[in-house]
Design a protein that fits this description.
alpha/beta; TIM Barrel; globular; chitin binding; signal; hydrolase; Chitinase_insertion_sf; glycoprotein
Length: about 375
């Protein structure tokens, strides 16, 4: 009897771990990219984030603009036509959102409740499997403390709603800085550990040509001479107390174009005098490949920091190519991270980066399941 009970307990635990430990092969989509949700190859993802819902500055309820309402309402059905098992999350906020509105919402219990209740209702009514908070960024110690309170109350409300409705609880995630401190403030690590299913580390935008007068990788995996890299962020988060299995590594499907001061000085840290294109030099992977083909640009892979760059004339672009993506995904898997995500799927080039990431991750959990042998008990 004891042996049977042990078998049942271990199998139950295994099933539980498989359900909560499903890896994350994620990607963000937003309609302003001009890329249709119906064109997403959702077979390459386990989770897709629909961005962004807004926060009403008066009511603190979650809203979606009238322009995006129809596409958001149909997002889950649309991407599940190709992959019925893909999970969708509604992402809230984003880099262009007013962080002061989030700060005001999180400061008081009634406004937090307004946000939380509306977010759950909106996610359910639009068929999302979860909610993703992208507050960039809390600016004071009290705002960080209030973020912790918000996550506590959000998790409690999500659990209560699931119990009352009989549905699977909504997933709760957050997009956060690559490291556990931002603006010299520490994230509420304990609350994150307890209340969020995982966090998306935005391991990119370290450098861009509107701020720096030298070329550099904006998403290096390693930084031998400093603390500005994806691997440093992962190590800092785990040292702060967040388990690696709650971390999802962010990878950019875009790069930045610098204008070189001297076309003959075209390496990393070469002198530059601003962006070589609009949008502060931001260019999608598809555009980068077009630039390479049209200008016969030289491509370089730097394995020390793990980045690609290309150059032609006075234009220098730092970006992630398939080799970079493969190395980053392998790093995430080998270090026990939950997975990876991309910002954003609309600028991939014929799904080359997404396919490489998917292939590099491999069938991790299938191996665990298939190697299970009840005779070992």
């Amino acid at each position: 009897m004891a042996k049977i009970f042990l078998l049942f307990s271990v199998i139950s635990l295994l099933q539980f771990n498989l359900s909560i430990g499903q890896n994350v092969q994620g990607g963000y989509w937003f309609p302003e990219s001009g890329f249709e949700a119906s064109d997403i190859n959702s077979d390459l993802f386990t989770h897709l984030f629909c961005a962004f819902a807004n926060l009403d500055p008066q009511t603190y309820q979650l809203t979606i603009s009238s322009t995006n309402n129809a596409s958001f309402a149909q997002f889950t059905n649309t991407v599940q036509l190709k992959n019925p098992s893909v999970k969708t999350l509604l992402s809230i906020g984003g880099g262009n959102a007013d962080d002061t509105v989030f700060a005001s919402m999180a400061a008081q219990s009634p406004s937090r409740n307004s946000f939380i209740d509306s977010s759950i209702k909106l996610a359910r009514s639009y068929g999302f499997s979860g909610l993703d908070l992208d507050w960039e960024y809390p600016q004071t110690p009290s705002e960080m403390a209030n973020l912790g309170l918000l996550l506590n109350e959000w998790r409690t409300a999500v659990a209560s709603e699931a119990t009352a409705s009989g549905e699977e609880a909504l997933i709760l995630t957050a997009a956060v800085s690559f490291a556990p401190t931002v603006n010299d403030l520490e994230y509420p690590v304990q609350s994150i550990n307890i209340n969020l299913d995982w966090i998306n580390l935005m391991a990119y935008d370290f450098y861009d040509p509107s701020w720096y007068n030298f070329t550099n990788s904006h998403a290096a995996l390693y930084d031998p001479s400093g603390q500005v890299s994806g691997s440093y962020g992962v190590g800092a988060w785990t040292q702060a107390g967040v388990r690696a299995a709650k971390l999802v590594l962010g990878m950019p499907f875009y790069g930045y174009a610098w204008r070189l001061v001297n076309a003959n000085n075209h390496g990393l840290l070469a002198p530059a005098n601003g962006p070589a294109s609009a949008d502060n030099g931001a260019v999608g992977y598809r555009q980068i490949n077009n630039f390479i083909a049209q200008n016969n640009a030289v491509i370089v892979y730097n394995s020390t920091i793990v980045t690609n760059y290309c150059y032609a004339g006075t234009t220098w672009i730092g970006y992630d190519d398939t080799q970079t993506i493969a190395t980053k995904v392998s790093y995430a898997k080998q270090n026990g991270l939950l997975g990876y995500f991309a910002w954003h799927v609309g600028v991939d080039d014929n799904w080359a980066l997404s396919q490489q990431a998917n292939q590099s991750w491999g069938a991790q959990y299938t191996v665990i399941r298939d190697s299970w042998n009840c005779e070992d008990i």
